[in-house]
Structures are given as structure tokens and as C-alpha cells.
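Design review, sub-item: ligand-bound model
Attendees: FS, YL, KQ
YL presented the inputs for the adenosine-5'-monophosphate-propyl ester complex:
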Amino acid sequence: MDKEAILALLEETREFPPSAEFTAQANLNGPEMVRRGNEDPDGFWADIANELQWFHKWNRVLEWNPPDAKWFVGGKINLSVNCVDRHLAGARRNKAAIIWEGEPGEERVLTYWDLHREVNKFANVMKALGIGKGDRVTLYMPMIPELPIAMLACARIGAPHSVVFGGFSAEALRERINDCAAKLLITADGGYRRGNIVPLKKACDEAMTGCPTIEKMVVVRRVGEAAGITMHAGRDLWWHDLMKDADDYCEPEPMDSEDPLYILYTSGSTGKPKGILHTSAGYLVGVYATTKYIFDIKEQDVFWCTADIGWVTGHSYVVYGPLATGASVLMYEGAPDAPGRDRFWEIIEKYGVTVFYTAPTAIRSFMRWGDEHPAKHDLSSLRLLGTVGEPINPEAWIWYHHHIGGGRCPIVDTWWQTETGMILITPLPGLVATKPGSATLPFPSIEADVVDETGKSVPPGGGGYLIIRKPWPAMLRTIYGDHNRYVSTYWMRFPGVYFTGDGAKRDKDGYFWLLGRVDDVMNVAGHRVSTMEVESALVEHPAVAEAAVIGRSDEIKGQAIAAFVILRDDYPGGRPSADELKRYVTQKIGAICRPDDVLIAADLPKTRSGKIMRRLLRDIAEKRVMGDTTTLADPAVVAALKEKYGENEG
Ligand code: PRX
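KQ shared the predicted structure:
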């Protein structure tokens, strides 16, 4: 966030206490549980774990040898049993587990019983393909029910899944497949996005030119003929062919609490994505508890988290958390403005969605599209709203509160990360008064703090680095294949405590106000993009000699990507245009990493020791008065860049 946005946020004084009606019915509505969480965290988590189904219970809740945590030590559990089988005994058996709407308008409802059958069948399909406990399976799929079915089937047989967001390029997919040496790839012929076909299978074919570990590819028929795909004999298999004769029961694998559940790649401050590894029992207990108490899930709720399952929000709050609580989960395949800008509100009205969870960047788009779109629909089924992914500006919070929540729904602004697996800082909707723009307080048992450079706690009112002092059940256990990077990224900056990479401030009431990343990671429309990753893609272009990338503030997306590029004089192929370089990055990594601005420059501002001064690039891109330039080797470079950026805009 830029300075002005932060200042506006910190001047916010409005408070919204929960209504008496909401509190009276809330799953967590008294201070006892919070006190227990903070005073006896092991007991608190054990109580919650006892609500789940185990093959064998744990001997110890937590074993903590910083930075390595083991939760529910000695326990045996299976996530598919807890997300599906556990609900079959009573009335939930015939309740909708997944309510799906395709972008072109199709509907599908899977009851818990249906989900059980599909998950078991696909688990058997994978076994027949030679997949067993510990084998990695990569999923590159649209938002269709087969995606959670495949994830739960992986969990059933103990094969860690690695879901790669469908917006990533073939090359990014290849890198993620090879990093974890996946054996099986699951995809679809295509998906729909704003009426266009997303060519997933074609991207898989392209990736396959360099993925020696993949033995088979399973393809869901989503689009049909129009996808224009080719099936490669001996390698590619249709999902529906394999499912036809599959047996509908597969014995679940009793997983050790600490056995891996999944790998999910996220951007770090180097070019190479990190394979965040989550394990079984602690992750399940964490997402189950947070779904139950933060989203206040009740038997009759229809819960809609709009995130794509390719991101952690989708893993934890489309799939594992809500299904573990036995909720009805709404899943929508497409874009919020297809075919009309009221698509989300139409869906909420149609299915009676009660709890709605989305990102601030989406809310800012809705605001810009106009109040008339939500006003056309009856949104009275809603009772609770949530946000995630980036700080929410108070203006967007208030708009959400009035135009979507009808002034009656509490808003939970939830702070967490791919690494944390579960929400860590959030209002408890029946208990905590909210302040627009603040994620408020840590979840019971979570010890969050704001510290200075030296790791000392900063008193209320001061800003610093957000850290977490103690382990929590759903925390990452390692970076796949690189434990040293795990230790150095998260546990060395302040020895023995978890470093989030975020800046934060605490007010006099102890409320946390998140201030954005303090490392080289941008937050573009709620997605994590590393400046290094974009820089690496740019310098791979043969005409590019040097590139510097920064996040500049953007009204809708939070941050936009600005790239400063120096071209080689000696490149024989001619000088690429800014548009060509943008396309190049899209092709290399994916459209979410496409720079908004590319400025082809003669030089970059550097210190005398040769370090690029990104702070000045940010000033240029945000058209601010220059900060301190005294350490610059050549001040004329900045003046030239400023002028050029202005021209480019015009
Ligand atoms: O900077 C924080 C921001 O998103 C980062 C985590 O990104 P990712 O791993 O992709 O997970 C996103 C969804 C969990 C954090 O380091 N962030 C997430 N939630 C919030 C937030 N910033 C402010 N307020 C939030 N509620």
C-alpha cells in the first residue's frame, strides 16, 4: 500500500459491535473459549480434534523443536473420511455437499453421498494407475466438481496433491510438476472464463515436453469438441472412461498425523516458487476450527468462498474446512462479470447463499461497476461476510457492509497466508467489534506480535514486522525439497519465531492493522507475485539486458506490476515493444504476472555500489515527489526516467 492509503487506514475510528441477535446464535459467543485457547492451547486444540474422526488418537498434542512442529503426534487420520464419510451416518447424507454452477449456466448438486461415491471411485482409478501413498499428483483444472473430488481422492489414498492454478502458463506448470516429481497429471480439456475456453489440456501437452516423471494424464471432458484437443495414446486417459467401471468403495489410508497432505506453490522473494508443504491432522483441525468459529457454520448454511481452488484460500475454505464441518459449499466456475456484472448477486439469490467470502480487490471492482447490480437482487439470505488476501480500505469495507450485507452482516477481515494454512488474525463474528480495515485480533491460542528490527515488541501505536511466536496446527512443515530455505525464510529473521513478511501496526485496543508486504513480494489483486519471478522472466527474453520490477499502488488491484527494462544494443532481432515484453511474461509465467507498465529505459537508478534503488522506481511509477536521492551514482538517470514514464502514460 502507498503511504496515503496507510495513513487513511490508520485514522479509521468507526467501530461495529456484533448485533445481539448474531451473538446469541454464534458458535463462539463467550470469552471462555478464547481464554482457554490462550491459556491452554494444547487443551483447546485437543477439544476441537476430538470432534473429528480418527483411526487412532494422538499421544501428544504438540512436539515443538523450533522450527519443527509436530501436531497430534502418534495419531492416525484420513481427511477424506472427515470431509465425507463422517457425514453419512445422519441427516447430512442427503444434504448438498457441493452446489456447482458453471459459467455457461449449468447446475450440478452433489450430496455427501454422491461425493462419497465419486471420491471413492476416483481413488480406485488412481490406484489402478499405480498411484499409492506418498506419490505426488499434479492437478491443473478449472473450477468444476472433479477438482475437489480428485483432491479428496488423493487424500483418501495418501497421495499428496499439488494443485496448480489454471491461469499459470505451461512453463510454470512444468516447473511445478518437476519440482515435486509428480507421477500423475489431472486436467480438463478446457474451462470457461468470460465465455472463452481456457486451453488447459493444450498447456499440459506443452508442459509434457519436459516432464519425465509424469506417467499418465487424466482428462475431464468439460468443454467437448470446441476444445479441439488431441489425446495421446498410451499416456492420456478420459476421466469418464476410467470412472465407468471403478468400484465405489476404496478403503481409506490411515495417515499418520504428520504425513503430507499437499504441496502448494507460492511466490517468495526469489524467482523460484516455494512448494509449501502441509500435513494431515494439524491442517484438518486448523481449517475445521476456523471454518466453524469464524464463518460460524450451521447446518443450514450455504457457504460461498469465491477463491479459485488453485490458491490456498480455495484449499482451506472451499474444500477442506467447509466439507469437514459438513456445510453446503457453493462453487462457481467463472468470472464475476460473465455474462453480466451482477453474476455473483444472481448466484447468491438463486441458491440462498448465507456466508460469503471474497477479496477486497473484487469488492473494489463491484463498487466501480455500480450499486445497481447488487440492488437488483434479493441478498437477504446473507448473514455473514468475509474478506481475505490484502488489506481492505475502509471505503470498500463500508460499501460491502451496506450494499452486500444490508448493514446487518458482520464482516470478518481474515489475515493469513499459504504458509499458515488457516486464518490466524480475524474477528470472531459474535464476539469482536470490527473496525473497517483492521483484521482485529488473533484467533484463540495464536500469539501474534509486532516487532522492530531487533525483534523487540513494539508498543501499541507503533508499526513493525508481524511475527507469530508459537506454532499453530495448520502451519507449513517445510518447503518441499528445501528444508534450509524453510528455516532461513521463516525462522531466521527473528530466531525461533515465525516471520510473516508483512508489516503491521497495533492500536490501543490491541487490534492489528496489516500494512502490506515488507519483502520483494507484490500483492496484485490479492495474488502473490514475486518481483524476482517477473524480472527473471523478462531477462530470459534475448533482447533484455536488465530488468527491475516493482509493485505500484493501484486503485482496484491494490498493486499493479511496473517493469523497467534495459535492452541490449547488440541484439540482432531488433528492439521488442513494451507490449511484446508483456506478452512474453504472460507466456512464461501466466497472465496474473503480466506487467501493467513496461518502461524501456536507457539506465536504472543505482547506488554507487551498483544496487538498483527500487524505492525511487516506486516513486517514479506512483508519480510522487522523489525521496532521498543523495546515494545515487547518477542523478540524471532518475530525471530521464520520470520524464519517460510521464510520456508513456500520455
Ligand atoms: O500480505 C498478506 C496478504 O496476503 C499475503 C499472503 O498471500 P497468500 O499466501 O497468497 O495467501 C492469500 C490468502 C490467504 C499475506 O502475507 N494478506 C492476506 N490476508 C490479508 C492480507 N493482508 C491484509 N489483510 C488481510 N486480511
